[in-house]
Amino acid sequence: MGKGNLNGGNRFSRRRLLSIGGVLAALGLGGGFLYRHFSSTSPVKVESFITQGDGSKKNVLVMTGSARKGGNSEVLASAFIDGAREAGHTVNVFHSGITPVGACLNCDGCWITGKPCVQDDAFEALSPLLEQAEMLVFCSPLYWYNFSGHLKCAIDRMYPYSRKNRLRDMKVREAMLLMCGESMFPRSFAAPAEAYRQMLGYKRWEDRGRLFVTGVNEFGAMKNHRALGMAREMGLNV
Predict the structure, then answer these.
(1) Residues 57, 217: Cα–Cα separation, whole Å
(2) E strands along 4-102, which residues?
(3) pLDDT band at residue 16, thresholds of 50, 70 and 90?
(4) Burial (CB count <10 Å: 0-12, 13-18, 19+), residue 28
């Protein structure tokens, strides 16, 4: 009988060890998942909000950052655009992922030809829109915890309008930021949120709203998403 009890105890111990091991493995996987998403971002506070406009009609330029036609961030931008146009605003759109501009060359050739930039690319289509716009709206997917490279290049090329010897300037006085990404954690958007905040301060633009949409990655994930109503409301309140 004693031997039987000993064998039973061994079986119980093995089951218990396997159970504990399974729990520890699950905790390890979960902890690793949380660590990747929390440790890879800064402590910058990330929050979505909308502010009320003054009722005046504006010229709005929406700059998108995805090269995926009909992708989640493009759907998000479309909801905003629909709201803004319904409210009577003039809305232009520049899809930096579909008509990409090259990176800034840091050549200091701004305005030497009478144009903002010496490069002959899609920026020639973007620059007139920048000069007409009273509000800029950035809409990008989250790529490696930041803006997409397409949108970042377009933003970098705005440099001629910040030079002291500029021939012309932008009329922009207000801005908004809309982003979406696979991560379930708002803090994953900390880097672009901070870059946007710094741009606001440098250019003295008024922050009119931000929208960070988590948990969307697969094509079509944004369809019927509740965030589309928020984006449309942001457009209505331009």
Answers:
(1) 34
(2) 49-50, 59-64, 90-95
(3) low
(4) exposed
